[in-house]
Amino acid sequence: MKRIFQGSFWISLYLLITFLPLIILLVGPRPIGRELWRDFSVGLGFCSFSMLGLQFFLTARIKAVKAPFGSDIVYYFHHQISRVMFILIALHPIILFIFNPINLQLLNLITAPWAARFGVSAILLMGGLIGLSIWRKRIKIEYDRWRIWHGILAIAAMTFALVHIELRGYYLNTLWKQIFWGLYGLFWIGVMAWVRVIKPLILLKKEYFTEQIIRENGNAHTIILRVADSKGFKFQPGQFAWISIWDSPFQDHEHPFSISSSAMDRSKISFTIKDLGDFTGRIKQISIGQRVYVDGPYGAFSIDRYPRSREFVFIAGGIGITPFMSMLRTSADRGDQRAFTLIYANKNIESTTFLEEINSMTGKINLKFILVLEAPPVGWTGEIGFVNSQILKRYLPVDLKANQVKFFVCGPLPMMDAVEKALYELKIPLSDINSERFDLV
Fold first, then answer.
1. Residue 149 contacts by C-beta under 8 Å, 6 or more apart in sequence?
2. Which residue, among 79, 42, 81, has the nearest Cα to 161 in the 3D structure?
3. 328 and 266 share a domain?
4. Rounded CA separation 242/254 (Å)
5. Residue numbers of the domain that contains 376
6. Does 67 lie in the same domain as 191?
7. Last residue of a domain, one of 203, 221, 253
């Protein structure tokens, strides 16, 4: 109930901030002789401008915002709403062109008034921003470089749009409206200050040092960090954190990874990271005693959110096992007597991370472990191929009452899509399915 209330609050606040400029536009004196279609165009511009500012808020890593939904849902919304926002921004001038084609001359950045130059430039910057985000992987832009340009383009688009509004000034004709837009500007400046200055300063005061590096199967390494804070690092099993190594928090080079250690030991925290190139390929080069900056925890992918559920089904693929290891290790340390089913898909035995530890856990907690191999060894008698509805049907609990059995899915995106589809075919309620998709950009 608490999460529902929190979620409803943030959704309502988002809608209020989005449409408040439009309400302000309609209240009070309006410029004389302005046609309805022109006012409609301006209203779209104001709403899209508010949405642009809220994009900064959605990615500011404010835990209270992400807690009811989970970070992956918030980032997914951030991605999808940006496309809606761009359509609304584009419609703002398009409507002006349709009803009065003479306005097409405003597209000439050399001869157009400065207000139009800033407005058109803001739209072009937004188009570039969204285009780079959609095609980043296709055109092979390195993650850290993309993040830098993403921030530059977003701030530039926001600034140009604000200048455009100020120069037009048609709807800033009263003192209280000017105060309103001034407060809007201060709000977004405050969000940027939090992200770029205040949050990095906080991270500088929190000390984490590399204590051990363990080589794992599946071309992965576990880094164990010692927490210098006497209070330790409190998190829910299954959550993740952003970590920065070799750079300060001000350099915007953090990367998100699931926590793989037990939540019962706050003095240490571990991350198991597979070598996929770029940043992940350098993990094995970390020196013992090296400082690491940790921003977290984040995420809603945790059994702790469902204390009344009697059984859990974990479906993992590849390195997607890491949040499940945190949940299993924590459950073992707590002596949790609830039932757990782990269906773990991998290419072969050699690439199966944590295989020995998982097998040993079957004697510590009520765990049923099913390993699914794409390329099994000779004589293999277990499951072969990919996780599908047939395999799931063989191992799912008999009694699948809603809210009693919770499903957790984490792994490569194609695998997750297939598993979620299979669960849907098996009539598992969507409210009982939890997914962790680390496709944040």
1. 132, 141
2. 42
3. no
4. 6
5. 309-436
6. yes
7. 203
- Identify the CA nearest to 220 among candidates 325, 290, 360: 325
For 126-179, what is each residue's pLDDT tens digit?
998 888 888 887 887 877 788 888 888 888 988 898 888 888 766 666 777 777
| Predicted model pTM | 0.83
- Are 70 and 299 contacting, i.e. CB atoms less than 8 angstroms apart? yes
Cis status, amide bond into 297, omega within 30 of 0:
yes
Local structure of 320: helix, strand or coil: helix
Beta strands per DSSP E along 307-419 = 311-317, 339-346, 367-373, 383-384, 405-410
The domain tally of the chain equals 3
3 state SS for 266-308: CCEEEEEEECCCHHHHHHHHCCCCCEEEEEEEECCCCHHHCCC
CA–CA distance, 370 with 386 (Å, rounded to integer): 12
pLDDT per position as a tens digit, 373-410: 999 998 888 899 999 999 999 998 877 777 789 999 99
294 and 349 in a single domain? The answer is no
Residue of 305, 323, 324, 315 lying closest to 346 (CA atoms): 315
Residue with structure tokens 């559920």? 309
Helix H or strand E segment including 214 = strand 208-216
User: Do residues 400 and 325 both lie within one domain?
Assistant: yes
Domain-located, residue 441: no
Are both 406 and 383 inside the same structural domain? yes
Residues 160 and 235 grouped into a single domain? no
Distance between CA 265 and CA 322 in Å, rounded?
17
Q: How is 359-380 classified by DSSP, letter by letter? A: HHHTTTSSEEEEEEESSPPTT-
The DSSP element (H or E) to which 325 belongs, if any, is helix 322-334
Instruction: Calculate the average pLDDT of the chain.
Output: 86
Separation of alpha carbons 259 and 239, rounded Å: 6
In a domain, 135, yes or no: yes
Q: Identify the domain boundary among 271, 298, 325.
A: 298
Give me the CATH number covering residue 380: 3.40.50.80
Of 211-215, 280-284, 413-417, least confident by mean pLDDT is 280-284
